[in-house]
Every structure is written in structure tokens, then in C-alpha cells.
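INFO batch 0412 | record 1 of 1 | parsing
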Amino acid sequence: MFSKVLIANRGEIALRILRACKELGVQTVAVHSTADADAMHVRLADESVCIGPPSATASYLNIPSIVSACEITGADAVHPGYGFLSENARFADILAAHGITFIGPTAEHIRLMGDKVQAKETAVSLGIPVVPGSKGAVADSAEAARIAAEIGYPVLIKAAAGGGGRGMKVANSAEDVERAFDTARSEARAAFGDDAMYVEKYLANPRHIEVQVMGDGEGRAVHLGERDCSLQRRHQKVWEEAPSPALNAAERQRIGKTVADAMSKLGYRGAGTVEFLYEDGEFYFIEMNTRLQVEHPVTEAITGIDLVAEQLRVAAGSPLSIRQEDVTFTGHAIECRINAENPETFAPSPGRITYYHPPGGLGLRVDSAVYQGYRVPPHYDSLIGKLIVHGRTRVECMMRLRRALDEFVVDGIETTLPLFRDLVSNPDIANGMYDIRWLEDFLAASRSSEKIA
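INFO prediction complete | emitting C-alpha cells
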């Protein structure tokens, strides 16, 4: 095991990693910007190093400063968390060149899965089902129109690099293709510096299903079930749950085994998530995230497996501590992402938290790095915490979630807590009857009814 791990992140995920390290007897180093000098992970770490001013590019994305912090403190490994440098192959290469372990997959696998075209080609070669579409990047709108005619409209024109909904446009007919292609390409060039585009079949009402996998890099891999992440706003996940209300046992077993077998063939190391669109009993590969996911706690809740501890062990060269037959699923779990945002406009709401009271009780977990008096900075993602609820059944889980949301108090800033109180009382959510477009439609309908009133 490592002697000292530097945590190259901030907020709740930095605190989550710190706790896993402490439970394994590993010393921790927190890096932080000047804006995060009073952050909880900085207070609790064994050592801390300031790596720059508030801007993420000058601090949490500043590779030379992070490497220097490793050398100053003697850290022999880096955990990148999610976001920032977690899927940066160059960062992994630089750490290796300095004799420091990157707690994650190899740089080769990060590069492979970071390019959507290569990732799709790899998925096909590994036996993972994919959405019908172009086999690679398309040269221009004319080629896009030809492929669209073959696979049928509507189609999605999508950037090969990046994510978060940028560089993605739907074309419903041949007349739409040129405009959609040019707009998506322009967005991709501006956002990612890469305007390679590809075309795929657009699914009307799919669910977003992802499979958690863990590999040891030596050809052994296990799946830890699926998560349903269909409740999204602008392609950003809002609510995640496991297991999915939409899948039956046979479908769950089929897609889990497909992913585990594929990652075994790939020789994948560490935690990863393979994401799918699911419609009419079929799964279609979207992408693979070669890192820990924000929503990993729901998997931990139903399996009892500490994913971060497993990441640390595998990165240190130990074999997986679990076999597929050891993985069992108990009950149901739901995670709500609590953001410092206006619950209606979703405008960021940074500022000082004047009162903070998280819920408690059986089956509840709150992953958050905020506290009463903490000032939420305006420079980073608005996520301030995650409420994770576990119950023996989905009904019990929903009842427990409703009670937890009523107890949760964050004053001084606006948060998305009111949104979740609305969702947990909605009949569609209660019955698990939603898809990736449900939340956008719900929000649009809410705004319309407010205008009429």
C-alpha cells in the first residue's frame, strides 16, 4: 500500500478519498487554491499545499504545481477524484515519469476511451452493443446526411471529444443536417479545440443506464451492477439510483456480464463506468468514464463495497479483493445531487452558509464538505453535497428520502433541495416511469404553469 496519497481535487470528493485513505492507514496530502484555504479536506488532511490562485486553470489543473506538491511532501501516489485531471492521460504520463502512481487506469486506456470514435470502435471489438451510426469521424455535412439516410432519422450529430452536452445537435430530417452539423462542429471547436464529429441514431425515449466495473489490470474484472441516471438537466445528472427500476434480472445479468467480460479482455485497471442508452430492452453504448463517478455511493450502498478503497488497493498492485460471485445486491439506493443553485432558474448561488443541518437516521449518508459558516466559492462546480438514501425496497427508500429532504437545511444560499422535494412527491418518479427527457419536460411544464398562474 502507498505511504502517502496526494488528493488532486477539492470539495466532497476530496473528503471522500481522504476518509478512505485514513481507514487504510495511508497519510494524506490536500492541495488547494487560495479560495479553498478553509476547506474541510484541507483541515483534515495530514498535510496541505497551496497550489495557486482561485482559477482552476491556475490551481487544480496546474500539473507542474501538483507534481511539485508531490515532491515537496513525498507523496508516492495521486488520486485525481472526478473532473479536473481525472481523465487527463498526459497527467498520468507525467506522474509516471516522476515515479508517482496515478490512482486510475493506464494513460493508454484514458486516451482510448476519451475519444468517442475510438471508444465506440473499441466497444464493438469487445462485444459491447452500440448505437447504429458512423464508424468513425465524418468529413462534412454531406457525409453526415448520407449516413443519416442509411440509419434513419432522427439522428444525433455529436462531437468526438468532450461532453456535458456541448457539440451535440439533433437532425430530424435531411433539411436539418447541414445546420445541425455546422452548429455542433462550431461548438466542439470552441469548447474542446477538436471539431471531429460523428453521427448516430437518435433514440426517442431512452433511459441512461451505466454499469460500474472494477479491474485489476491483469485481466480480471467484476461488475458491481447498474445505476439509472436518467433524470438529467442539459445532459447533467441530477438524481441517480440503483438498481434501475426499468431493468429485470435477466437484463441486469446480461449487460453486467457483457461489460465485465469486455473489461477483462481490455485488461482494464481500477474503477470505470460504461454508460448506455436503454430502450425497448436493448442497450446502446454511449461512452466509458475512466474514473470514479459522482454517483458511486449508490453502488456502495447496495453492494457494501468501498470503491475508493478498492481503487487504492488495485493501484498499489494488489489483486481485486472481490470475485464476481462475492458481489451481492441488497435493497435500493438513491442519490440526490445538492447544488448551490436557484432551484427554478439554476443560476449559481455562491456565498456564506449561515446555517447547516444535514439529515440523519438509518440508511442515510451525506457526502459533503460544507459546514456552517463555510463560504461557497464562485469559481468551481456548484455541487455542495450528495444525499444518499438506502432502503430494503424502493418504496422504503423513497419514503426515507422524503423524510431526509424535509430535515435537510442549508441557509444563506439557494440550493436545489426544493426541486428534490417536488420530485420525490411526483407519481412518475414514485413509479419509476421516467426517461432522459422527463426532467426537462417537467421543468418546462412547471415554468409554463407559473406563467399562467
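INFO post-check: The first helix runs from residue 11 to 23.
INFO record closed
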